[in-house]
């Protein structure tokens, strides 16, 4: 991997959404012709994601990762702000009536990201505020109300060759013991676009689920990179189903 490609690892790492999110134009010093060169001064990355399952759940998230000292392409401190909102339904644990849940969560995390030529590792610690409301009382569901918890998160990204990547994203909050782990592998189908398998495990004191599927990652629309995924989803209450997801990233 070239040194220029290595610089792009942190922009690619959080969601593995491609290489350069934007390019700048400069004149070739010899011919005078304009040429594109990679941007290397990003300080903010905005990730947006949405997931819908056939098990009657739909969630969206927006995450801002900020480099307050240098750039996202260099090792250094990070600030991560995240908002999550969604809705779900399930049969009540006592009456069997359909219960509709609405959830919102906000997180503030502080951390550090280490950048190497073929890898990036980031660790975060902070807190989250989570609110969960139910349409009817369900005595068997303890995940109700609003609370504050400590939260930790980590991102690991490996790029052993320009044609493949491996990524793991994980988080845990003491509020309702909520956890999330996602692993992905990608193999280049053409320049900057990858396809491969993915697996996700998530849950809390009441709910748990796992998902296995595939993703297509890195295709661009303007300054934004996108990823889409689909596969099989299983949760403790509604059992088997399917999921679809879409994610985007823009850095500036």
TrEMBL record:
<dbReference type="InterPro" id="IPR031485">
    <property type="entry name" value="CBP_BcsS"/>
</dbReference>
<protein>
    <recommendedName>
        <fullName>Cellulose biosynthesis protein BcsS</fullName>
    </recommendedName>
</protein>
<feature type="signal peptide">
    <location>
        <begin position="1"/>
        <end position="26"/>
    </location>
</feature>
<dbReference type="Pfam" id="PF17036">
    <property type="entry name" value="CBP_BcsS"/>
</dbReference>
<keyword id="KW-0732">Signal</keyword>
């Amino acid at each position: 991997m070239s040194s220029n490609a290595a610089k792009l690892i942190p922009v690619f790492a959080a969601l593995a959404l491609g290489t350069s999110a934007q390019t700048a134009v400069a004149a070739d010093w010899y011919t005078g012709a304009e040429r594109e060169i990679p941007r290397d001064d990003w300080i903010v990355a905005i990730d947006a994601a949405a997931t819908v399952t056939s098990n009657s759940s739909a969630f969206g998230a927006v995450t801002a990762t900020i480099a307050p000292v240098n750039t996202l392409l260099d090792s250094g401190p990070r600030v991560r702000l995240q908002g999550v909102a969604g809705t779900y339904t399930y049969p009540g644990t006592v009456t069997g009536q359909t219960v509709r849940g609405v959830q919102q969560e906000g997180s503030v995390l502080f951390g550090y990201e280490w950048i190497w030529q073929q890898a990036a590792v980031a660790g975060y610690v902070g807190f989250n505020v989570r609110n969960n409301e139910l349409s009817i009382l369900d005595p068997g569901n303890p995940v109700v109300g609003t609370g504050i918890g400590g939260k930790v998160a980590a991102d690991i990204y490996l790029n052993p060759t320009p044609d493949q990547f491996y990524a793991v994203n994980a988080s845990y909050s003491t509020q309702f013991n909520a956890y999330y782990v996602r692993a992905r592998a990608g193999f280049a189908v053409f320049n900057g676009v990858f396809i491969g398998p993915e697996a996700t495990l998530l849950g809390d004191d009441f709910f748990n689920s796992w998902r296995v599927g595939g993703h297509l990652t890195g295709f661009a629309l303007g300054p934004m990179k996108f990823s889409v995924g689909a596969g099989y989803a299983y949760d403790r209450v509604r059992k088997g189903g399917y999921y679809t997801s879409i994610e985007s990233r823009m850095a500036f």
